[in-house]
Design a protein that fits this description.
By secondary structure, the chain is α/β, with parallel strands linked by helices. The chain contains nine helices and 16 strands. The protein has helices spanning 14-24, 26-30, 74-85, 154-169, 188-195, 207-219, 234-243, 272-284, 307-316, and strands spanning 36-41, 50-55, 58-64, 92-98, 120-121, 128-132, 135-139, 178-181, 199-204, 228-231, 248-253, 258-259, 270-271, 287-297, 321-323, 340-345. The protein has a seven-stranded mixed beta sheet, sandwiched between helices. The protein has a five-stranded mixed beta sheet with strand order 1-2-3-4-5. A two-stranded antiparallel sheet has the order 6-7. α5 (188-195) links the parallel β8 (178-181) and β9. α4 runs parallel beside α5 (188-195). The longest helix is centred in the middle third of the chain and has 16 residues, at 154-169. The protein is globular.
Amino acid sequence: MQHHPRTRETGEAPAALLRAAIERRRAVVEADQTQAYRVFSGAADGIDGVFIDVYGPGAVLILYEGRPPRSFDANRDAPALLDVLRPLGVQAIYLKPFARDRSRLGGELPAVVTQAQPLAGEPLPEELLIREGRCTLEVRLYDGLSTGLFLDQRNNRLWAGEYVARLATKRDEGDPPAVLNTFAYTCAFSVATAIGGAVTTSVDVSGRYLEWGKRNLVHNGIDPQPHRFAKMDTFEFFSYARRKSLTYDLILLDPPSFGSGSKKKGIRPWSAESDYHRLVKEAAALLRPGGVIFASTNTGALCRPGQLEREIGKALGRSSQWIALPPVPTDFARESDRFVARAFRV
């Protein structure tokens, strides 16, 4: 009889735990609203430090160093996990290990995160196009530690697109809503709002990711020309926007927890925990009358109940008009304490 390895947490084989996790997410899997979603959420689904995301024909197995039990072996267990995922259309599993202290990597990535050969299954193309609602988005499963898309923001991207679409219907044809997407990464929020009828400005320090963002617009049949892509630090862009009297109907804030800054460019190091209020304050100065700020974070200290609201209040010096956002996606419901988002009018 074949021996199946078992996890320390539950005594169940990883494949059985994954099968049960997928059943809990059956509504997402069968809804046909997205091809990218989370099917396994670490300890909440039975194995600490192990997460699995599906991107159309590919899946990504995320491992956090020091957290999975010794009984879990990615190389050994991947083929059985792929068998469970095949009915979802998954043909390959790629591995992304995350070190507890990335600084000791010296800027070098683990070789496995850039290899076309998956942990299990057959190699997939370098570029995949997945559908999310009305958006077609490019993802890359072996292009480094990230894939080009933050899945936990899916419902918020849908909200942003619908918000500007409603705004656009109230405007004259020559005055589309203006959206500022800071820390834009591959510009998925820009795509959702451009489809809704907005003219977008995407700001990021990475020219490579902004080029990815331009491709994302093209994937959706949108001409990038009317849209702006600014390779700048967000605070640097805020200063530029003030000088040019630029204002926006919707400003999107989804910063990283930390940023190293640049002495050469005069860019201060960034810490979400200590600097988020400054980010909100400077963003609010660029809002048009009736404009809205979307503020999001996955920084642990800011995810405590009420803490992000307190930071927003500190920034504005007065109360805000809160706007209802959609619930956390069902596939992330077991991780709802790991990120928080608020939308408000000043």
